[in-house]
Amino acid sequence: MANVSGDSTSTDTTKSSKIDEQQLSQPSFPNTRWMNITTDFSRNPGIFDDVFKKIKDLMPPAFEGAKLSVTKMLSSHFQVSHSMTLSNSSTSGYKFGANYLGTRLYSQSEVFPVILGDMDPNGNANAQIVHQWNDKFRTRLLAQVQSYKMAGYQLSMDYRTQFTTTTLTLANIDLMSNSGIAVLQHLTRVTKNLDIGAEFLYQASPMIPGKHIGITSFVTRYRGLDWFTGVKLSPAGVFNLGYFHQKINSPLQLGVEFEASLAAKETSATFSYQYDLIKANTTFRGMLDTNGLVTAVIEKRLTPLPFTFMLSSSLNHAKAAYRFGIGLLIG
């Protein structure tokens, strides 16, 4: 009986492992194919600009007035959206958007190329193209049009290794007027918990004294079990300090950010949070800062319908200004 039981357990384990392998081999996006990945990126630190990303993502997406957005999937790769906003701000009106997701799958949540765009009747448009050429090289192209005229563009290139990421960004390069911006960033994983990086920004313009300027910045991030803290320092006198905390399986996320500029003699601190009521399908986001600004957004998903109801409020104590918004997202 012992031998029979042992054989049965071994057979069940083999079947289970085969099923797990089949599930992992199935792409999470339909009509996509897995691309060949030759490098283990589990200890890659990410890009320089994402050091404070988790803290920034806690900021509530406040808006004013009434907002209606309808998203329609036309295929497994293409979707369109229609948005209408009624408010006193310059962003009021109709906006059309379109998104395309490609067929090259590099992880359960990353598929390329990605093409995003939106436009409004006033001749304003934004476009973004992100493509992963191989497991190490990625490019991002952004373009903006305002009042039917080209307002700017930006090209970024990321090169990843197992422990480092190097990014080169070129923005609004104009050889005729000798103007433009170039940014070189590098972030590396020093230990299991420590990342350090550096950034060099070069800008050329006839409007700048001396016609060009260069700024260097340094950043470090230390990770704990359920928290991380980051520091960004520039010799020009700019200082950023951030802290993020979330316990494992906790619905509460907390973020604190402190910014100081010695040249402008200004300082500010921001506290933000996000709380997910999973059983109620509701998300709360809030933020307050030392300038007297208090913002809160509530998102309620009306399952099983594809509706999301939103309430937004913002109060600026220093300016005695109050904004309120109500929105409905469909799709």
UniProtKB/TrEMBL annotation:
Region (Disordered): 1-32
InterPro entries per the UniProt record, alphabetical: Porin_dom_sf, Porin_Euk/Tom40, Tom40
Record flagged with keyword Ribonucleoprotein: no
Entry's Gene Ontology cellular component terms: mitochondrial outer membrane
Keyword terms, alphabetized: Membrane, Mitochondrion, Mitochondrion outer membrane, Protein transport, Transmembrane, Transmembrane beta strand, Transport
Gene Ontology molecular functions: protein transmembrane transporter activity
Source domain of life: Eukaryota
Name of one Pfam family that matches: Porin_3
Membrane topology: Multi-pass membrane protein
Record has Cell inner membrane as a keyword: no
GO biological process: protein import into mitochondrial matrix
Sequence ranges of Polar residues compositional bias: 22-32
Family note: Belongs to the Tom40 family.
Name the record gives this protein: Mitochondrial import receptor subunit TOM40
Species of the source: Rotaria sordida
